[in-house]
């Protein structure tokens, strides 16, 4: 081992004198400062630096030198420079001689506690570069007697004269340390060569020695040995005032962006200087291998003269792309490539796109890409294929071939589309007539243009069908989605497919890759296998416009499939001979009225007549039609009941999303009836608008949604009013009460959104001559009693207007039904769930049962993307259920993963979610599938009880299997907590698993821990194992922080109490809160502590107001000391004092790692936890195939990713090959993307106000561009997004967060702690995407240029005064929205 290091580690056995480590991620013990005062050395390969990125900021403050040789990477510096924003110093050596000197410098700096990356072109197999003298060791320790100032002039001047522009600023402490260290080695941080007053200056970060000897008089060269730290002032200081052009030479070959890192640094340096100072022109050049120095200099001079930027000098290892042709290539829309890429994935080398733009010769033009032109290509290829078949027949008829070859040729002739049979001919002794023949089958495809579906009788489509040619047509329909009633009666591309079916000889499929990925794959494969013409109709609404977002495509596609305007089906004439159905309907939710669509065209009527089952198949998947007659009868019955009252009639209409406005309207109607008023209530949209002028008295209650819009159940009513369908209202007495929040839109330009819905309605009714009973009532959440403040004034006025103000009721007013009533009346969570599941008249459960099913892990939802379409078609909302599993610590076995995958396909929407609570979540399970799904979940030894509801939910635990036995201990502790706090009711087993309830009173359910009322609100627990706070332990009601002894054995846990995320917008009585550390307990005491905290909350939590019912509010109301004292009273002993601990991050660490037992673990990136197959990302298939062979377990992370854990070393290659095959081994995403998280939000979550999961990846792509501009691609910043303020993705603790307020509008927060130790604060109350990017652009640039070593973004914005720190939950709103 080299004498100047306390220890040396390497990831390769080839490195001499180093201890082999399985992963470049060193343990804290290995990074700890040695008693000798010498630093540690870690020798890694360039590509392994990517694995180190999550740990680089920790390394920046460690006594470690990371040594990297770039020789094995073709001298490419790209991987090393990716660490430039990590806080680590970076030293470069051009040769072995420099490496020996610079290694001493790096070691000296590292010995002071500043990590250093030392890289360059030197032997990668050595750590001992010749250090042996005591003087070297003394130098590294700083014990040498060399004068600190020795050599400072050498640093300034290098080998030539100093030439500065005079704006150097005071260097930082680390910069001074480097200057001194280099000077004492008789060297400098940079070397200057050439003229004192050059016109051109070359700044090189690479081996530019060949150029040094051939510099002309007007050119000088600065070669850098120190790249980080490198301040803008330093860069400007090395550029003489005479310089007109700066050329930056860098050995960066695999660029992640157009510009290399040092070039961006130089440009930024001159951008910062005073405006009156002139800046030189700066060019970027890639420095390759220079064999001819004169030619290299000339290439630089030519580039300067031509203004070429960027350009190359010398021979670059990876050749650049060929120069673009001057001919204009046909343009393929961005989104259309989704289908062409899919073809490439399915058919690989077999694929032949006959009219692909890239296959054309430069002399060809756009018409050459037309399907008509391509059809000639394909027919010609088919003729050539037939000619080959004829030559094979002739060869078989001759006597020139042996028996084996004859057998192979005969087999090929029987099935020339079989790739295996074609491959067998590769080894056959073929005659000369066949020696150059291409036997491998091709999958020929033609991409259709709009011309193909307009003239059905005479088009190229007709030609292809009539000839019966073996050709595949992919015809893309880009017609934007419209409601069926709004569509124009014109022929569309889908009509071409229906027309093709009448021929009887064509395979036809209708697909939509953004609607059903698996069905699209099946259709493409079947089309290829079909012998004859195949027509695949592909939907891509608005896809011809590159500006259309993928999210819009997804939404429009879903709507089109839902209403039947784009049905998914497959028609295979060859299936009949095989005993299969010719027609397969693939649309999941097609409606019965799709027959109208079928009968629209005459040729479809003929088709239906020929094959009656065709239409029947379409109708078989119809949704449940709401019968308007039933509604009318129910309404008439209620009217008859109300008519029995003697008072005046009153119609109470409400429009409400969250339910508060509906409750107030119904409460008002109930009070009216007690006064004798014949009151009835309806939602706005349930009232026939033509009947409204016939009413006598009407009271309107409405809240607002989005940007002042009407709630969902009032929008059709308002559309009708706007369309002039509401007649004169002069005979109707009206009153309006609105509910809003005057602070929800704080900007002056947005103030008109406050109670906009009721104001618009008031204006419209006034315009229709309606009589106003009382003045417009405006309820405001910001009033002392919220909306009740205004309502208490408005209601008495209504009684007076109705003439019932002198009424005095002798009966007590009925108390409104709350969750507490539902729980106590539920018979321990039974309610009427069983009866609701048996009711086939609706896809929903009763509202009260919907509250109870949460305790069973089930949420009722509906698809909000298609609410309007369902309503327009007379259907109830597309109800379905979200099912969440109880999965302690997020650990599951491979067979359980396979079961989850199968349940998602058979019962759900073919996808599942890895949640921020380390569990699985299904979406899209319809009511008829709900009970079978729960039973299938339980069959694989999992369950859903207590995954939601007012009980303790899934217990989270740090997912770090490399900790070995310790992680096993903590995992078992999480299981103990989860099982020990599980509800004891038998209702779950009775309802879902068909266990029989005990009859009579012999045995009654009992909840010893929860009681009949259960908890006031949900209760969450997390267990963190330092140094990683990946579970955000402080965000939970109760937390445990593992404390280890010196031998990494578990001593016990620090206990945290009082965290919580949920907030209500603009309601300052609600706020996020981080937990307090209150003491320490042993592992044996852990469950007792949990029960004591839970029961303290059970008995003291706020049951009157669910918005203030979480533990955090109980803690603040009682005081943390009093709350802790009550816990200790129930325990019967005091908690021990808390022990020291340290967290460093709360993000996941991707890629491979090795555990203490030698087993391997791979952390895979699953963006926002959505496990699905999509173009280019078949991750659901990938994980399924891995689960089939994996012999370990899977661990879900709290950041929505998955660890394939406990892989035996002998199985690593198998897992790696599958990861590689499906692209799941990709971990080189930007650090921002790797550190992001989003909740589900739209379209299924009923609480969502804006997009989240579907939108955050798109936003990150744009923020990534800002990060790239500032050289921060690999800097981790935690960014989280939620669709509402309830906090599922824990946004309130992120460095940057966005919380949905309305579609496209978000609350923006800054300043959270990188490892979850500090809440963020509201920076802007309302921002859209444009504003987000405008805010972040200068902020990110400032962070890149002005941050301190190792400083995280959240800390930076606080230090710079951009936002103030949130010191506690109650201070969350203090100092918000600084201007």
Written overview of the protein:
The protein is an alpha/beta fold and 1379 residues long. The chain has 7 domains: 1-145, Thiamin diphosphate (ThDP)-binding fold, Pyr/PP domains (Rossmann fold); 150-316, Rossmann fold (3-Layer(aba) Sandwich), CATH 3.40.50.920; 449-619, Rossmann fold (3-Layer(aba) Sandwich); 648-802, Flavodoxin domain (Rossmann fold, 3-Layer(aba) Sandwich), CATH 3.40.50.360; 824-996 and 1006-1131, Sulfite Reductase Hemoprotein, domain 1 (2-Layer Sandwich), CATH 3.30.413; 1151-1231, Sulfite Reductase Hemoprotein, domain 2; 1232-1371, 2-Layer Sandwich (Sulfite Reductase Hemoprotein, domain 1). Helix content is 33%, strand content 17%. The strands form 9 sheets. It has a 7-stranded mixed beta sheet, with helices on one face. Helix 5 (96-111) crosses helix 6 (134-141), helix 33 packs antiparallel against helix 34 (927-939) and helix 33 (894-907) packs antiparallel against helix 40. It is globular. It starts with 6 loop residues before the first strand and ends in a 20-residue tail after the last helix.
* CATH-defined superfamily of the largest domain: Sulfite Reductase Hemoprotein, domain 1
Distance between the termini: 57 Å
Q: List the total number of helices.
A: 45
The fraction of residues assigned to DSSP E strands is 15-25%
Instruction: Count every beta strand, where a strand is a DSSP E run of 2 or more residues.
Output: 48
Output the strand order for the largest sheet. Answer: 2-1-3-4-6-5-10
Radius of gyration: 36 Å
Q: Determine the mean pLDDT.
A: 84
State the CATH architecture of the largest domain: 2-Layer Sandwich
Secondary structure: helix percent:
25-40%
Using the coordinates shown, work out and report the CATH topology of the largest domain.
Answer: Sulfite Reductase Hemoprotein, domain 1
The total domain count is: 7
Organism: Rhodotorula taiwanensis
Family: Belongs to the nitrite and sulfite reductase 4Fe-4S domain family.
Pathway: Sulfur metabolism; hydrogen sulfide biosynthesis; hydrogen sulfide from sulfite (NADPH route): step 1/1
Catalytic activity: hydrogen sulfide + 3 NADP(+) + 3 H2O = sulfite + 3 NADPH + 4 H(+)
């Amino acid at each position: 081992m080299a004498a100047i290091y306390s220890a040396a580690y390497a990831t390769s056995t080839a490195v001499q004198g180093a201890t082999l480590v399985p992963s470049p991620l060193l343990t804290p013990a290995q990074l700890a400062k040695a008693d000798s005062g010498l630093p540690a050395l870690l020798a890694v390969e360039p590509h392994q630096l990517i694995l180190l990125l999550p740990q680089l900021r920790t390394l920046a403050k460690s006594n470690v030198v990371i040594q990297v040789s770039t020789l094995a990477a073709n001298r490419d510096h790209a991987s090393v420079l990716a660490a430039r924003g990590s806080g680590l110093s970076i030293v470069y050596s051009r040769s072995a001689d420099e490496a020996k000197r610079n290694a001493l410098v790096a070691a000296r700096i590292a010995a002071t506690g500043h990590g250093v990356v030392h890289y360059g072109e030197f032997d990668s197999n050595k750590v001992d570069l010749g250090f042996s003298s005591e003087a070297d060791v003394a130098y590294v320790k700083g014990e040498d007697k060399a004068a600190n100032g020795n050599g400072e002039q050498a640093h300034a001047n290098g080998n030539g004269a100093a030439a500065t522009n005079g704006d150097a600023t005071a260097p930082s402490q680390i910069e001074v340390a480097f200057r001194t260290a280099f000077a004492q080695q008789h060297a400098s941080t940079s070397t200057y060569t050439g003229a004192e007053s050059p016109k051109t200056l070359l700044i090189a970060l690479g081996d530019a020695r060949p150029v040094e000897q051939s510099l002309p008089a007007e050119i000088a060269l600065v070669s850098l040995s120190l790249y980080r730290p490198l301040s803008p002032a330093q860069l400007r200081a090395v550029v003489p005032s005479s310089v007109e052009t700066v050329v930056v030479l860098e050995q960066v070959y695999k660029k992640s962006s157009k510009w290399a890192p040092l070039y961006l640094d130089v440009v930024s340096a001159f951008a910062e200087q005073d405006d009156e100072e002139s800046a030189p022109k700066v060019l970027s050049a890639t420095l390759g291998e220079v064999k001819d120095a004169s030619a290299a200099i000339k290439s630089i001079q030519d580039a300067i003269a031509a203004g070429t930027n960027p350009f190359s000098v010398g021979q670059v290892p990876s050749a650049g792309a060929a120069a673009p042709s001057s001919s204009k290539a046909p343009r393929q829309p961005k989104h259309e490539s989704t289908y062409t890429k899919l073809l490439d994935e399915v058919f690989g080398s077999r694929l032949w796109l006959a009219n692909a733009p890239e296959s054309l010769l430069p002399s060809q033009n756009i018409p050459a890409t037309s399907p008509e032109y391509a059809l000639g290509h394909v027919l010609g290829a088919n003729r050539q294929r037939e000619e080959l078949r004829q030559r094979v027949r002739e060869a078989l008829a001759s006597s020139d071939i042996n028996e084996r070859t004859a057998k192979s040729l005969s087999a090929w002739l029987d099935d020339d589309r079989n790739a295996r049979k074609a491959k067998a001919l590769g080894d056959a002794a073929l005659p000369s007539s066949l020696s150059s023949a291409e036997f491998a089958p091709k999958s020929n495809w033609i991409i259709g243009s709009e011309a193909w579906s307009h003239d059905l009788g005479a088009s190229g489509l007709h030609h292809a069908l009539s000839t019966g040619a073996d050709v595949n047509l992919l015809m893309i329909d880009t017609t934007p989605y419209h409601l069926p009633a709004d569509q124009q009666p014109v022929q569309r591309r889908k009509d071409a497919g229906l027309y093709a079916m009448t021929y009887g000889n064509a395979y036809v499929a209708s697909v939509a890759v953004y609607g059903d990925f698996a069905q699209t794959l099946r259709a493409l494969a079947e089309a290829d296998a079909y012998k004859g013409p195949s027509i695949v109709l592909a939907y891509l609404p608005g896809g011809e416009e590159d500006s259309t977002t993928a999210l819009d495509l997804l939404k429009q596609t879903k709507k089109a499939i839902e209403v039947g305007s784009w049905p998914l089906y497959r028609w295979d004439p060859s299936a009949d001979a095989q005993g299969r159905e010719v027609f397969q309907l693939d649309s999941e939710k097609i409606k019965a009225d799709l027959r109208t669509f079928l009968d629209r065209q005459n040729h479809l009527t003929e088709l239906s007549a020929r094959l009656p089952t065709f239409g029947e198949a379409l109708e078989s998947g119809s949704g449940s039609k709401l019968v308007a007659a039933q509604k009318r009868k129910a309404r008439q019955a209620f009217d008859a009941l109300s008519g029995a009252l003697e008072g005046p009639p009153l119609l109470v209409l409400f429009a409400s999303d969250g339910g508060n406005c509906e409750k107030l309207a119904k409460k008002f109607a109930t009070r009216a009836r007690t006064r004798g008023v014949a009151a009835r209530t309806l939602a706005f949209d349930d009232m026939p608008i033509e009947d409204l002028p016939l009413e006598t008295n009407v009271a309107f209650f409405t809240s607002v949604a989005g940007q002042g819009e009407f709630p969902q159940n009032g929008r059709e009513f308002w559309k009708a009013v706007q369309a002039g369908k509401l007649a004169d209202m002069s005979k109707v007495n009206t009153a309006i009460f609105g509910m809003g929040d005057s602070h929800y839109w704080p900007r002056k330009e947005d103030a008109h959104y406050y109670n906009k819905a009721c104001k618009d309605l008031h204006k419209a009714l006034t315009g229709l001559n309606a009589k106003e009973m009382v003045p417009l009532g405006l309820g405001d959440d910001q009033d002392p009693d919220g909306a009740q403040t205004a309502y208490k004034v408005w209601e008495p006025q209504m009684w007076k207007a109705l003439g019932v103000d002198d009424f005095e009721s002798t009966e007590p007013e009925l108390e409104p039904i709350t969750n507490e009533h539902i729980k106590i009346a539920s018979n321990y969570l039974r309610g009427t769930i069983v009866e609701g599941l048996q009711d086939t008249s609706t896809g929903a459960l009763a509202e009260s049962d919907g509250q109870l099913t949460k305790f069973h892990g089930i949420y009722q939802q509906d698809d909000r993307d298609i609410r309007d379409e369902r309503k327009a078609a007379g259907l109830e909302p597309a109800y379905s259920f979200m099912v969440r599993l109880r999965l302690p610590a997020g650990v599951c076995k491979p067979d359980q993963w396979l079961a989850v995958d199968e349940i998602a396909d058979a019962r759900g929407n073919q996808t599942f979610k890895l949640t921020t609570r380390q569990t699985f979540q299904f979406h899209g399970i319809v009511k008829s599938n709900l009970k079978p799904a729960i039973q299938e979940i339980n069959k694989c030894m999992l369950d859903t009880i207590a995954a939601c509801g007012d009980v303790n939910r899934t217990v989270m635990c740090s997912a770090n299997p490399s900790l070995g036995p310790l992680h096993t201990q903590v995992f078992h502790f999480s299981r103990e907590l989860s099982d020990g706090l599980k509800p004891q009711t038998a209702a779950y087993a009775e309802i879902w698993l068909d266990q029989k309830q005990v009859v009579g009173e012999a045995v009654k359910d009992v909840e010893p821990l929860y009681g009949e009322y259960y908890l006031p609100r949900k209760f969450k627990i997390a267990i963190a194992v330092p140094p990683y706070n990946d579970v955000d332990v402080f965000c939970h009601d109760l937390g445990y922080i593992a404390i280890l002894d010196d031998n990494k054995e578990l001593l016990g846990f620090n206990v945290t109490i009082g965290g919580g995320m949920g907030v209500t917008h603009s309601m300052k009585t609600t706020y996020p809160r981080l937990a307090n550390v209150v003491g320490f307990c042993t592992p044996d005491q852990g469950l007792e502590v949990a029960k004591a905290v839970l029961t303290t909350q059970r008995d003291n939590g706020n049951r009157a107001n669910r918005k203030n019912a979480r533990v955090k509010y109980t803690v603040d109301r009682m005081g943390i000391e009093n709350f802790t004292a009550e816990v200790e009273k129930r325990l019967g002993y005091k908690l021990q004092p808390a022990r020291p601990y340290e967290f460093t991050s709360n993000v996941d660490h991707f890629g491979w790692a090795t555990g203490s037992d030698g087993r391997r673990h791979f952390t895979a990136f699953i963006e926002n936890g959505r496990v699905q197959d999509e173009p280019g990302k078949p991750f659901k298939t990938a994980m399924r195939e891995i689960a089939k062979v994996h012999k370990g377990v899977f661990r879900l992370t709290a950041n929505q990713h998955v660890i394939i854990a406990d892989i035996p070393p002998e199985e690593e290659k198998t897992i790696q090959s599958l990861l590689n095959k499906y692209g799941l081994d990709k971990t080189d995403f930007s650090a921002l993307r790797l550190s992001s998280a989003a909740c589900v939000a739209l379209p299924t979550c009923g609480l969502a106000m804006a997009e989240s999961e579907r939108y955050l990846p798109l936003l990150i792509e744009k923020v990534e561009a800002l990060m790239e501009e500032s050289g921060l691609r690999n800097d981790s910043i935690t960014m989280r997004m939620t669709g509402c303020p309830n906090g599922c993705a824990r946004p309130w603790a992120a460095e940057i967060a966005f919380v949905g307020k309305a579609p496209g509008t978000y609350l923006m927060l800054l300043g959270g702690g990188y490892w979850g130790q500090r809440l963020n604060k509201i920076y802007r109350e309302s921002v859209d995407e444009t504003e987000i990017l405008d805010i972040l652009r200068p902020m990110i640039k400032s962070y890149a240029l002005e941050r301190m070593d190792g400083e995280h973004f959240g800390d930076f914005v606080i230090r710079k005064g951009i936002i103030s720190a949130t010191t506690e939950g109650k201070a969350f709103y203090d100092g918000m929205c600084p201007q």
